[in-house]
Fold these 3 entries.
Entry 1:
Amino acid sequence: MGDPSSESARSRSEDVPRLRAASLRVSLGRRPVLHNIALQVFPGEVFAVLGPNGAGKTTLLKTLAGLLPYEGQVSLEGRPLSHYDRDERARQLAFVPQRTELTSALSVRSVVAQGRYPHRHDSERHDSERRDSGRPSRSNRDAIDQAMRVADVDHLEHRSFPELSHGERRRVLVARALATEARTLLLDEPTASLDIGHALDLYELVRALAKDNFSIVMVLHQLNDALRFSDRALLLQDGQEIVSGTTAEVVSPHAIEQAYQVSMKSGGAMSFHRSGRHRMNGS
Amino acid sequence: MDSSTHEPPPNIGDRRPTKLFWTYGVLLGAFVAVGLAALTVGPGSLFDPSLRDTYLELRGARACSAFVAGAALSTGGVLVQGLFRNPLASPSILGTTAGASLGGQIALVLFSALVTRSEVAPELVVPLGCLLGALASLAVLLGFMRRGNDRLVLLLTGFVLSAFFLSMGSFLTSVAQESWELGRAVVAFSLGSVSGAGFHQVLFALPLVVVGGVASFLWGRPLDLMLSGENEAETLGVDVKTLRRWVAAWVSVLVAAAVSLGGGVSFVGLIVPHVLRPFAGVNHRRLIPASAFAGGTFLVACDVVGRLIPTRSEVPLGVVTGLIGAPVFLMLLIRTARGYDG
């Protein structure tokens, strides 16, 4: 962590990481997909997961979201992920998929309200849990309103979800994640298929959330975006870590060549070229 | 304008209350009209005071049976359509309908074999057979789900079970042809009819439908989240595997009740929720009561239509639902397709 821009990250490193994985191994069927992955994500930090197609980025995100069985350790707020029940986990950790399967004519408000599902027993739950979390649990209505305001979708409240544009849908899904009151957000390619304006809006939202002490893990394809909007990063290839550290360290010519078989020229604007070593080997 | 004075509209749901109000208004009107028709339409005259009570009782029992069966099938349809995230799923997809049907047929055959020459109607033996048949097929289904609990396993197991039970049913039907009366009874049962249903059967089926309906309503919220897909529902706190098991169980109970009243009635569970979605919304806690009500009314109406068609014997209910259901369904399909374009 030699980068001066990560000064705040360094002071944070004494904190407990909000999300931590160590010697993480994941197999889909019999095929091992992730080998020995380690990462730590601290409060107020944007963490980028990078790598070529098929490197295991989405698998990693789904594993962290608790959707896939794994070997090794994953802990959330210092406690093993497997010790959480579903609702507890959903109140701490929210997953925003790249593409939702939702095609039903639900209103935007109803979609955001889905984020309140893990809070359905709030009135029955013992107050101690709320005191432990240090923040009072808001009423459903307030939480939904607030989430829509923060994600800037409140003006779409009564629109039907399938009628929205890609950019609007993505923001509504982020609003649903915020409505869970989770402090750790997992975003799978949040700007895929968005134009540059909508993509920038979304990144700005992500930065604002990080400033508000959220922890955000994003799968990204655009290395420029990673450099600009993430604090630290993990570069994967074939399910293995190539390098991790501050994003500036990770997005280095050597590592990029190794992972993507492209050469990177930085200076003024960054540019990438297919390196001579590249072969179409189907990986 | 000061933002603090801006009051958000109180409506949180998907459909404006007025729309829901009109939907229920129309349903209620249809219910009353169909109910009156069910009591008055038929060969005998209600003006004969000596026969009036008998007619009213027979037709009343028949209408009640059709209503309860229709409500059960439609509720089952909402459940499986929510579970499979497919508006074209029918409750028979799980194989428990065929199981219940086979159970009823076995009960019918066994009953006639054991109580030959008896005049006693198999009123309660058949419903019990249906329930046992549905529960047996549910047990097989849950057994397979222990091995691999996912949508595809459920779908394939249901399909195979359905095919197996239907073949068994056909076998039984052919065996039953040896006795004319029994053969007729078995065929009538598998074609679907509420003509022989009495209040005893309604009393047997009603608790199952009420419990199944309330349980379905209570599972409505997780089913709403399932609209976003299983992964998203899971990360939002839904226990998808448990949900799948319980939905299978409640669909079986509902279907058993429906089959015990009306035999093999197709199309109701598929079409009614589908038709209602644009009016009642996709929210399950609204769709389930509306579908139950509309499905019941629809089946009573089909029964009345079946009585009106002039044939020597009555047209079976399952035939009428198909004859009405298929064109209506196609019409709606065309309309919704247009709606998406425009």
Entry 2:
Amino acid sequence: MNMAAPGSCDPCLIRWIEANNDIIATWKRQVDQCRDAHTESQKLRERMDQLLKLMRDLPPVVPFAALELTVTYNLVIMELNADKEVKEEHERLIDETLRRVLAAHHLDPGGDHSCSALWRTALRAESLVQQAGIVHGLAGLQGLIWSVQKKSPEVLDLFQTFSTFPVTDRCALLLLLRSWAPPDEGSESIHCVLRPSFIKDIVYTAVAFQQGVEAMEKGDHDSALDLFQEAAGCCGTKSFMARIRNCQGLCFIQKGLPHLALEHFKQALQEDPKCGAAYYNCSVAYRRLGKREAEVEMLHLLKCVLSDPKPAAPSPRGHGFSPISSEDFVDVRSLSCASLAPRVSELQYLLARHCFEYKMMDEAADNYVELLRDLMEGSDVELGFPSPAPLPPVAEILLEAAACLIQVDRFEEAAAACEEVIVKTADVIPSRILLDRTKERDPVITDQLNCIVWVSAAHLFQAKIQALQDETKTSISSYSRCVNLLLKVQFSGADAGNESLTSPREEERDVIDTLKCCALIGRSHQFLQLGNLKEALKNASLGLQVLPACPEANNVFLSSLWKMERKKEAEAHWQKFKSSKSRTDDQWQSVKRSLPLSLHEFVNHKFFTNQTSIREIRECLGS
Amino acid sequence: MSVVQYLAGLQRPGMGITTSEARLILRQHTAYVSNGTNTVHSYDTRNRRITASILFPAKVLLMEWVPSMQQLYVLCAKSGIYVLDLDEEGRCLKEPDSTKSIGGVSIISISSESCCVCDPSVCSFTATCEVLVTASKHPNDWGIKLYHRKSMNGQPAATAPFREVQFSMKLRPGAAQELDESIFHPVLHCVTPWNGMESSDPCGFQLERALFTSAFGLDCSLLDSPVILGGFPDGQVVCFPLNPAGLPRPTNSGQHLEQVKLLYHLEQPVVYICATRLEVMAGEGAGGLASDCLMFLGHKGLLVRLMHLGDTQGVTRDFREFHVQAPVSCAVCSGSCIYYSTRSDLLSITVPLTPKEGNSRASQNPILPSASHSITYIAAMAVTSRSAEGDVELLALSSRGKLMLCQLSQGRGGARAGLSGVKSGKRIKALLSGIGTISERVSKLRSLLAQKTNSLMTLNQVASLSRVVLCAPLSECLVHCQIKVSWTHVLQKSCFVAACTLKNNTDCVLEKGWTLCIYLGTECSDVSASYTFPLPRLLPGHQTELYFPLPTQQSDSLDFPLKISCTLFYSFKEFAVDYGSSINPTDSFSPFRHGICLPLQEHIIDILHCFRLNPRDGHLVTSAATHWDVLEACLKISAGGYRCIREIRNLPEDFNRRRLNFTAPLKVTVRISSLLFNKVLQTKKTGVSRAVIHWLFPGEQAENKEEVQGLTPHGREICLRVQELSVEDATNFPTTEIEISSPHLDALAYMHMAVTSRIKTLVQQYKGDGCNPPMLKLRNVQEQFIARESFLKEIQAQRDKLCVLKGLNSDQVRQRLLSIYRELRQPGLLIF
């Protein structure tokens, strides 16, 4: 852009141009020297602001219009560089300059004095053609500000001016921006802090990303991918690029393409090794792929990143450095949603849980203990943004920890965890809960039901611990408490016996029945230890009635019959069990899927019966 | 029956104390009191005195005592929160900005260095569980910040908050302006679940586990996370756990954590939050320390009780609303009773327990009956003690700045309004009796007060009059006492009576109670007689007349000159009796000890004042009996005396006159320069002689006379003649002679003394008029002195001769003595 020289060699104009250029030169020199001096930047901003104020003391005249536009452009960019967020002051600066320039050129927007009308007038004015570059630059800044303020109609209207075809769809904004061709002629006499043509890339990237996040949240992953790809094609900081790649990966995960998601997550980590969301999403992708070790390793890496108090390394300066970037003009909430990463405590839980799931018991136990300690202490948690993996209720964490600790024979700690649940939850359990499966569930009743389940599970674990420590009678008492608690829950409504339903209420029913069954067969096993065969058989029979699909219930029942020398009955039951084994196995798998993690291991652990005895029994019956 | 003891006055100069400004907290036996100024007073409740006054840089809004750290936190308006580390005696551990002692009270000035949170927007706070929680008011929302307090090992507190929470205001329609003008501050408390053990430093309210879980969630209970409970002026009661892991979990990932949970909305400013135990179990031991109830009290009288509904399917939080009298300014809780102030009264209510589930709706009684304790204007209070019977002792600060100890007795279940009939009757009877007693006391006090007022007014008048009289110059007689003597007849007996005219020339009122004391005295004795006259009330310009006889009843004779002293006296006897003085009113009156004495004038009464002239022609008014007595006495001695007496009585008058004149009268003369008389008496018109007679005997009877005759009070005849002479000396000076003659020596002597004293007065008057003083004939004076000396010697010689020549011819001696006497009495002109 060849800016027309001022109409007259006004010494004031010349002096002001020199002042502007000096500020810009100092600014660029500071950037080139990689000096990150906040004070110096502030001084330069103040000088620029002072220069603009001096100009505004004079009435608007044409020879000074170009300089005023450039100074305003430079000042807004310098302010945005310092504030890293859009403020009303920035919009006010642009608006006032625009009005003065239009007044200097005697350009009247007509009856409409809105900002959009002013821009329409300015962008179409022939008298401003010679200052088109800087006018477009300012328009780009105005569009960015409106975009952050969610003023979509104004943004559309503004960039509509640049195109020859009308658009009404907000999604076509990118088309408008693509067709926008701001003049790339730099001013020779009046220097800019950023070439106006670069504004287009910043605007384009910010709008594309914003729209991509919105599409991703709506579930339109394909559109989101396209938009993110458009955003990734432009310039931006490494952290912003990492966010874009992360979002692309998320879209692929949602589409069921974890391999492709992994690729994008890795690209995100290459861009920004401190991108916590990328680590987490990687672990999710590995989980989808069944790669447990990789999943856990990713979580460990994320833990290291979150534990490191050092901030991310600054982006390299030099050629291509922009004082402003697209991420400065994206809604903070949108930005945060695109960078969801678990907090420290949540990450700790994920590690503990995954280790528990993958049978890495020792590591899981340590993680659970560390997590519980952190939870009790109450760490200073950043609560400003949501989390992709919120913690479950504390009672569930305690039960999972107890179950894990039992696996590694840390019985005292396990018992303490169970005791916590029992003591602090028992007071809120009513004497009876009647659940109508045909009606909507009150969240409060759900909470009460959960309390019953948790306390019952705690009693169950305590009974297990006592049984393992040969405290038979105490174990029987604990099993009894578990059963008595579960008996408070009564289900009513239609299809009470329909086991094919997989609604959440049926899952609750499955959990209740599994707990009841485990308690009964556990108590049966203890009676067997005491030699009370009659009670043992009775409890085993009850357990089998509660949950016929439970394989351990069958084993205990068989064992009880065998010890009572009722071998014919045992044989008959065995035959019956064999004939329906496939169906019961399916049922059992269905039930297991409903169970919380803490009960998974409980029901899988085969210590209810003497394995040798069962093998012998089966051999005898099989023969 | 409530008993109130006033302990101290902590008024704020110039204005009362509002509820939002009054603050009172207790720390064992010390009360910290703030009265809306920048001062916090430390009051020792055992010794009943103020021990210290702590001055802060700004007005004190809120205070809180943290027992575990022995710290006092104080919020100052538009400044921040200050923290003071105190020892067990209440002394600052850290050296304050300045300390001084006035009257046994330490004055401690605190500087900004003690400010731990410098945030002008803070309007409330609570310090608990190692955390300092502050609340700030923004245009449309409330802000809460959490700071780390100073840890037990003395590490400094963090200056920046480690967590910030904001939530929007929820105002009922039309309440925005009320909130802007609201004087209420947020009420913040910490709530923790009770862990079964008694703690020496409980972290705020300790709730039963079931209630805690119902109110704040199971996660908070499992984590034993303290929960901050806040009641705000817009009516919101919110809560949030200090442990962020206790926050309710979001239902979806990507959802923000709800950091603040709305527990209840009172739709009126929350003024009080408390936790207490309503249900007392039999044999309850340590379990009695946990509260089973949370209560929120609003300014407009809404009381919300939160309890846990045990063994209930579904919602176990039971919010129950009640209504009490409004407006509620402050409140305290003791057991199941809440004591609250409505400014016009102190009331108490008993919070009911949850009714049985079956009739929970039927027995709803939203309006709680309040018992009145008839104590007004309480702006802040705290419970000091509570007895097993439910009697409560409160320390309260009134809006007038009075620190009071209120002992409130509480009947079983609390005294309720809506008393039974019998109780109402008794109560009314007691009230009426009380009213009667008070009325009687008031009337007595009123009369006593009126009496005192009158006494003071009288004393004022007395003092004013005394001041005026005593300060006046001697020449001014503001209270003028004039004496006139006159003859009168009492029971056919002539006697002299003095008339005293007392005139009040002052501007003060001579109140009733004044006494005029008149003292009669002579040269021989100061007081020969005295009279006292109680005076009536004499207004300015008024006068009164009093009469008293001369001579007194004790003596028929008078010695002249007679000095009459007048004194005004006011006795304080009445005041001494009224005010229980030890003075016995029956004691002899001593004017100089128990009253005010104002000496007035002194008057000299000489024989001239008492001389009774012949009313017709100035001739002698004889008292025949007197004269006859002498002659008869003489004739009795001689032979044929009785025949001579009869014959004398039958003699014609001329003969009698001549016969009386046969006893040669004694004469004395006084010569004075006529010029003196002319100057002073202005004798041009009347002549010197008549002027002198008129001067000596003022009155119409003696006008235009040169000679007068009359009687003395004793009945002695005296004749006084004034004539002008030319002195046969070298100067030929005009002289006026006053000749006094009388057959009685005593009368003659009195008259001579009277005339000479008058002349002395005349000479002084002459001198006072500015004229040239009369000159003494010194030569004559010297001659007189020399002659008097010789006369004196001769008198002594003649007396000696009389003693020696006893019974011999003493007539010669007598004649010589008489002649000496005549010469003594006729010194000639000495003054001219």
Entry 3:
Amino acid sequence: MTAISDRRQMAYVAAQAADARVNVELEAEGMTLNIGPQHPATHGTLRIVARLDGEQVIEAEPIMGYMHRGYEKLTEVRTYPQVTTLVNRIDWLGSFCNEVPFILAAEQLMEIEAPPRAQHIRTILFELGRIAHVSLFLGDLGVQLGAVTPVFYAFRDREHVLNQIEAATGGRFHPNFDRIGGVKDDLPAGWIAETRQVLQKLREFCDLIDGLLFGNEIFEARTRGIGVIPADVGLSYGLSGANIRASGVDWDLRRDAPNGLVYDKVDWKVWTHPDGDAYARSWVRLQEVRESCDIVEQLLDTMPPGPIMAKVPRIIKVPEGEAYVATENPLGEMGYYIVSKGGLEPFRVKIRSASFNNMSITPWLLQGAYVPDVITILASLYFILGDIDR
Amino acid sequence: MTDTTEVQEEAQVDEAREALLEAITAELGDALVDSHLQPGQDLWIRVSSDSFGDTADYLRERQRFRFFDYLSAIDWLPSPFGRSLDANVDNILNPSDAAEPVAMEQGVAGGETRFQIIARVYSLTTHLGLHVKADVPDDTMTVGTWTGVYPGAEWHERETHEMFGINFAQHPGLRPLYLPGAFEGHPLRKDFPLLARLVKPWPGIVDVEPMPTQDNPEDAA
């Protein structure tokens, strides 16, 4: 009696196990995981369709275009001063940084140079934009990995920087402050002293994040060796900014092509990391926020007096020609290729945004990654959807 | 003192670009059609349509341009809508005064066709960028792909394909990148109407009118 039921039970278990195995194989074979379009890790609306083999991604395809606004077409029917309003919205977290390369390219075509004080103000706001942008990344990174606390500190301390940007330009996110030939206004009274205090707060924030995340065993375990990008692969995909510096490439447009910005008057260094993984990318960004604080501090000390606008005609017509100017934006290299036919508006503007190239590596990078690491990799690449869907 | 150092620096950059241009001219031979050097700023080369795909290999392997920057296209057709804010005609407001056909005029480094590819690579050793232009044949609308050499060109070529209708031979998958599958037309072509402007004309000319008091003394009176 017992022997029979034992045998029956074993047969039953074996059959169940075989069934289960078949089922697992059936389901796992070509299972499709849909990430987004509304996932917090995407900073906008990005959809990623991943085909899985068990826990591993065998193929991932990002699908974009949910937010495409056609800026390249729209710039063709806007005057040059009107374009800055548009391009503010490309990478919405570092908005002032979007205006600078466009204005510099237009100035290059017009052969105008902004006065030293305007260049200083530009560089300061450019770096403040980077600090606000990247400090949000540092907090957001924690959320993607399951640590909720850092993001509250990030939002709290980023606000100080945004307040300074607002005090100087009138806009928190869309300053529209850069002009061909200079900047719109001079800095308000007392701004420099206030900014110094804010920089101190941001340095403390960096130390806080350093302890909370980078000194955290779980954080290290989840990011070390994840999403490794070799330098040569990264370069042929056009990765720039902290993403490529984390692969050991010592290249920063602020140092190597400081056209129109005053980085050559400041003592600072370019941070790199040899590993090329998610940890390296995050670590480089943390160091860059600290470095930016130092850059701004030095620029505040050496602020030259003088005018903030060069002599520019009231109606801006840009002479015929073509120019490409790129700057080191928070997300990486951002540049504008302007074709002018001598009119009031550009004939063609090609917007080279950092996130577009940084994102184009994901089909390669996600291959073979495990599902829980997908979000880590996406978070560490750090892209803004507006910067992809221009 | 500062002036002389600046002049020296500028001269140095020029030398570097001129040397680069010389090397490229010598090695590319017939494939190089035209070039343009903007001293201290940028360097353009224009290669023949057939050799565009192979240029990538040459630039990466022989000239060590390891960084792929971007790839796009330019439509040189003057806008048939007369939308230019300083144009005398506006075909949208007044469809009757059709603009006289303006001659197509290609930019730096010349050109013969309506569409031109523009791509940029960058060298991390010399810190020089290089713009590569190539004419797109009007009949086939096809040039070689760069994806074999620079995999990052894949998305750029997909975008160029959907926005301009230019084909890239041997591209692994020229699917639309941004546009929905059923979308008709190529939005960045100059003859593709900007629908927002057709629906509601833009009072752009009003925006940039000179202020009455300063530029027009008659108005001030």
